[in-house]
Amino acid sequence: MVKENQQCISCGAGHYYRVLQDITLDTQHGRKVTIPAVEVFKCRACGDEVIPAASHNYIDRRIADEDEQLSPADVRKSFEALGDSLTEISQAIGIGSKTPGRWLSGSQHPTKALGLYLRVLAEYPEAYKWLKEQGWKAPEENILHLTFGPDGKAMINGHAFDQLEQPTAEGQPPWAKIGNFARQFCGTPYRPVRSAIS
Ligand SMILES: [Zn+2]
What we know:
- The chain is of the alpha+beta class.
- The protein folds into three domains: 52 residues, no CATH class; 63 residues; 58 residues, no CATH class.
- It is 41% helix and 17% strand.
- A three-stranded antiparallel sheet has the order 1-2-3, covered by helices on one side. Strands 4-5-6 form a three-stranded antiparallel sheet.
- Helix 2 crosses helix 4 and helix 2 packs parallel to helix 5.
- It starts with 15 loop residues before the first strand and ends with a helix.
- It binds zinc ion.
- The site of zinc ion has 9 residues, from loops.
C-alpha cells in the first residue's frame, strides 16, 4: 500500500505526495464521468501516479452512482428529445407534475428504473408517442368521475354534486367548484378536474 512520503516504486528516487485530482473515465454505458477530488499519490521526481485502494473504491462507487442516476443534464437531454412541455411529459409518463423540475434542478434523482425508462423513451420517439396515445394521466385515485344519477343529478366519484347549476363565484372557473367539492367530500386532490368535465 502506497503512503505519503513513501519512496517511489517506479523510479526509486522520488517520494510520493498526496494530491486531489479530477479523473475522467468512461462508464459501461459509454458515458464520460468526471469524478472529482480523487486522492492520488504522485512522485516528486518522475511524476509517477499511484491510485490507492481507497480511491479505487471511491471511483467504483461514484461510477455506480452515475450509471444508476441520470444527471440533471441527462434528464434535460431526455426531456428535449421528448419535445414536450414538462407538464405534458409528466402526464404522459405518469410522474408527479413537480418531479421533472426536481430532476432538472438535481434536488431529486430518478431511480434506476425510472432513469432507464426515460432513456428508452428519449431513444425511441415511437415508444413515447405510443405512451401518450394511451392517455394515462393521473393515478386512478386522483381522477374525478362525473356521472349522472337516474334523477339527472350530477355525481362526482359517487357523491351527489348539485352545485353545477349554481352560479360561479366571480372570477372562478366552473371547475373550481368541482375541485372544492372533491377536496371536501371525496378527499381527492384537485387536479385533473378539467378532464373530468370535458
Ligand atoms: Zn518516481
